[in-house]
Amino acid sequence: METLDLNCEKRELGTKGKVRALRRTGMVPAVVYGRTRSATPIAVAGLSLKASVTTDASQRLLRLKASEPDLNGRHVIIKDVQRAPLTGALLHADLYEVDLTRKIQVTVPLRFQGKPKGVADGGILQPLVRTIDVECLPTDIPEGIDVDVTELGIHDAIHISSLRFGANITPVFDSDIALVTVLPPTVEAAPAPAEAAVEEGAAAAPAEGEAAAAPAAEGKGEAKKAEPAAKK
Q: Are the C-beta atoms of 26 and 36 separated by less than 8 Å?
């Protein structure tokens, strides 16, 4: 994965007003810390940070660019970001300093490749997991793990143990979880009780001609019964 530069500078902890004023200049308040470094408040360039916070590479390796010697050239990954609820604007970032010679655990996305055989038979591709944890050196962090789903039939699944990783990348998992499967075609739902009642009522209703004949027949019967009474 490519290492990106992140412009930054040290900052002093201040009031909410000072923090808002900092954001208006295009900077984002952040803190950098590590295994051997205490938390240091810094301000990072908002545009550079936004370019680094992407769905497909959320733990990209970054190199700090600063005028302060104790910050310049340090390598970090983004541990967490806070966003505004409505606008999604970046409000704060936690940066973790890494040692390029020590392995770390990071979360990387899965990228499903190909069209499954089961989909051609009417099935539906159903990813069960979108990301997995791996252990590697910071310089070996992959942008994603490719998963070939071409041979998946209906009810088939791919488990994490069957994936292929680079020589320097080790998956981290407790159980052999399924990552993706192909669901069977959906079955047409049975009609609701109300709909079924309407259909039964329609079937039991007499035809238009029958409905007209019934009252006429009843009328004739009444006339025949009334005739003897008239003769008496």
A: no
Q: How far apart are CA 106 and CA 58, in angstroms?
A: 9
Q: Is the alpha carbon torsion for 92, 1, 166, 101 positive or negative?
A: negative
Please state the domain extents for the chain: 4-97, 104-183, 193-227
CA distance 152 to 218: 69
Strand ranges in 4-83 using DSSP code E only, listed in sequence order: 4-10, 27-34, 40-45, 62-65, 75-83
Burial of 131 (0-12, 13-18, 19+ CB in 10 A): middle
Query: What's the average model confidence in pLDDT over 38-59?
Result: 79
At 119-143, the pLDDT tens digits run: 999 999 999 999 999 999 999 998 8
The CATH T-level fold of domain 104-183 is RNA Polymerase Alpha Subunit; Chain A, domain 2 (2.170.120)
Which tokens in the block code for residue 103? Answer: 């392995």
